[in-house]
Amino acid sequence: MLLSVTVFGEEHSSSENSGNPIKYIAAALAVGIPCIAGGIAVGRIGSAAMGAMSENPDLFGKALPYAGLAEGICLWGFIVAMLILFM
């Protein structure tokens, strides 16, 4: 009888380490949605910047930070996903 209690106790502790599957879905959404939105934003900013630079080449330095801001959205999504997974 004592042996069966220790076997069941070991099974229970191993299932605790597997984690909650909902947090993996939340982490995937935390990365996926911002990356899709960031890709759309970079595409629109890039096409507008190329159009503006074709008329005035001096605008390159002004358009570049906006593309960086749109890519930063993806980085924040990745940070949130890491917080979800490891907290």
Report on the architecture of this protein:
The protein has 87 residues and is an all-alpha fold. It has helices at residues 2-16, 21-55, 60-86. The two termini are 38 Å apart.
Task: Identify the notable features of this structure and list them briefly.
single chain; 87 residues; mainly alpha; 0% strand; disordered N terminus
Short structural description:
With about 90 residues, this protein is mainly alpha-helical. Helices cover about 90% and strands about 0% of the residues. The radius of gyration is 23 Å and the shape is elongated.
Strand count: 0
Count every helix, treating DSSP H or I runs of 4 or more residues as helices: 3
Return the average pLDDT rounded to an integer. Answer: 82
Fraction of residues in H or I helices: over 70%
* Approximate shape: elongated
Q: Give the DSSP E fraction (strand runs of 2 or more residues).
A: under 5%
Unreliable residue stretches = 1-5
Main β sheet profile? none
Would you list the SSEs in sequence order as H and E? HHH
Give the termini distance in whole angstroms.
Answer: 38 Å
- Specify Rg, calculated over alpha carbons: 23 Å
Classification by helices and strands: mainly alpha
List the helices and strands and how they pair.
Elements: H1 2-16, H2 21-55, H3 60-86
